[in-house]
Amino acid sequence: MSYVDGYILPLPAENVEAYRAMAQCAGQIWIEHGALSYKECLGDDLSSEWSSDSFPKAVNASANEKVIFAFIEFESREHRDEVNTKVYEDPRLEECGDMDEPPFDFKRMAYGGFQVLVNLKK
User: Which end of the chain is less enclosed by CB atoms within 10 A, N or C?
Assistant: First the structure.
């Protein structure tokens, strides 16, 4: 089974396009270095009758913030480590955006690495 790095973060609504450009740039670098897939998703329907918690609540999103749910797929954890090392050493990553003033608050981002438990595709 593959391995996934996943994260959620709050994003000020006015920064969606800046974030999209940053993610598009960074995602291309991840793919070039071997990631199997790279997805950045903008929250659209985040209310749930099945859960007492929600994505906006998990990242303490305010009324003027959107929620990003993203994941990068790799062959394995070892492959993830190899790809991420190459990505973080790639000088082009600095061209993807100003990390001194990013379009979102890193402190409110939730991140983790996950072993894929079920992987169904059509």
Answer: C
Helices (H) and strands (E) in the chain, counts: 3, 4
Alpha-carbon gap, residue 84 to 90, rounded angstroms: 10
Within a domain: residue 122?
no
For 73, the token pair is: 């797929």
pLDDT score recorded for residue 102:
87
In angstroms, rounded to a whole number, what is the distance separating the alpha carbons of residues 33 and 46? 32
* Rg for the chain, CA atoms, rounded: 15
What's the domain count of the chain? 1
- Mark 30-39 as b/e (b = at least 16 C-beta within 10 Å): beebebeebe
Specify the CATH number for the domain of residue 68: 3.30.70.100
Q: Which domain holds residue 42?
A: 3-46+56-115
How long is the chain?
122
- Please tell me the pTM assigned to this model: 0.90
